Amino acid sequence: MAAEPIRALVVPVHGGPDVLQVQERPAPEPAPGQLLVEVAAAGVNFIDVYRRQGVYRTDPPFVLGTEFAGRVIATGDGVSDFAVGDVVATSDGSGAMATRAVVNASRAVRVPDGLDPEIAAAAMLQGMTAHYLVTSTCPVQHGDDVLIHAAAGGVGQLLVQLAVARGARVVATVGSAAKADIARRLGAAEVIRYDEIDGTDALAAAIRDASGGGVRVAYDSVGRATFDASLAALRRRGMLVLFGASSGPVPPVDPQRLNTSGSLFLTRPTLNDYLADADELRWRAGEVLDSIADGRLHLEIGGRYPLDRADQAFRDLEARKTVGKLLVLP
C-alpha cells in the first residue's frame, strides 16, 4: 500500500509570495545514502526567496526549502551513521517545507541531546554562515573593527555575538530603535541607524567615525543599498564580504575601485564552499549547535508560521519587518 501523501509548500511558477501553494504530493522515499525525516521545523531564508523568484534557477514546480530538523523515520541503503529515531538537522536537504523531507546522510548532523529541534533548524544555515564568515572568509582577530549590516537580523545577531567573542569591536547598522537595542544587547560597541542617515556618503562617514577611520572588514548581506557605503568605510587593505542581497543585487563593479580605495579585497562567498566535506560540516555545525546548547550563543526566533501561512513568513522576511529567525512548522 502506498504511503499517505505529504503536505508541502510548492512553487508552481516563479514569482512573489502569492505564487506559493500548499499541495498534497506523493510521499518521498529515501534513496541510497539518504534519510527520510519527519520535519519538526524548516528555516525561512533569502536563498528560498531567490529560488522562488528564479534568481537562483530551479525549475518549477518544486517544494521550497533546504533547511530543516526533525526525527529520522527511514533510512536508505548504505546509511550507517544514523538510525530511525535520531534527531537530525541540515541546511542542505530537499523539500524542507513539508511534513516529510529527505536529506543525504552526508549533509545531516545529529542534534545535541536536549536541544529543541526548532532551534536546531533555525541555527543551521544562518549559524554556519556566521561561523564561516568570522572564522574562515575573513578571520576576525582581537582588536579588529568590524562592520555588520542588518545586525538585528538572523545572521546579523549571530555575527555580532561571534565577532565579539573573538575580541572584535563591532560597528552595527540597523533600521529602527528596537533593532538598535538588540544590537547593543548582543555586544555591538557602536550602532548606526541607517533609517536616520541620508545617502551613501553620510553612511560611510558615520561608519568611519564610529570605527576611528575605517573598518578592517565589512560583512554585508544587504547588497545594493549598502554596498558603496561598505566599500567606502574600509580602511587600507580591508575586505568587503558580500554574502547577500536583501535590498537587491549589486550592479557590476569596476575592479579599479579596489585599487584606488586602498588595495581593498572583495569576495562573494557561499556556504556550500565552506562545507567542503562531511568533516567541515560536522565541525561548523558542532561548534554552532554546542554553543547554543550551552548558552554561549543566543539565537532568537522571530516568528513561527504554520504551513498554510508560509506565504506571510516570506512577506515579512522580504519587507525586513522581522527580528531573528523565521520558521515554518509543517
Topology:
Blueprint: E1 6-11, E2 21-25, E3 34-43, H1 46-53, E4 62-63, E5 68-75, E6 87-90, E7 100-104, E8 109-110, H2 117-137, E9 145-148, H3 154-165, E10 169-174, H4 177-185, E11 190-193, H5 200-210, E12 215-220, H6 227-232, E13 234-242, H7 256-260, E14 265-267, H8 278-293, E15 301-306, H9 310-318, E16 325-329
Parallel strand pairs: 9-10, 9-12, 10-11, 12-13, 13-14, 15-16
Antiparallel strand pairs: 1-2, 1-4, 3-5, 3-7, 3-16, 5-6, 6-8
Helix pairs in contact: 2-3, 2-8
**How many domains comprise the coordinates?**
2
Weakly predicted, low-confidence segments: none
Helix content: 25-40%
Stated plainly, the CATH topology of the largest domain is called Quinone Oxidoreductase, Chain A, domain 1
Structure summary, number of beta strands: 16
**CATH H level, superfamily name of the largest domain:** Medium-chain alcohol dehydrogenases, catalytic domain
Gross geometry: globular
Give an overview in words:
By secondary structure, this protein is of the alpha/beta class. The protein folds into two domains: 6-124 and 275-329, Medium-chain alcohol dehydrogenases, catalytic domain (Quinone Oxidoreductase, Chain A, domain 1, Alpha-Beta Complex), CATH 3.90.180; 141-268, NAD(P)-binding Rossmann-like Domain (Rossmann fold). Helix content is 29%, strand content 26%. The protein contains nine helices and 16 strands. The strands form three sheets. Strands 3, 5, 6, 7, 8, 15 and 16 form a seven-stranded mixed sheet that branches. It starts with 5 loop residues before the first strand and ends with a strand.
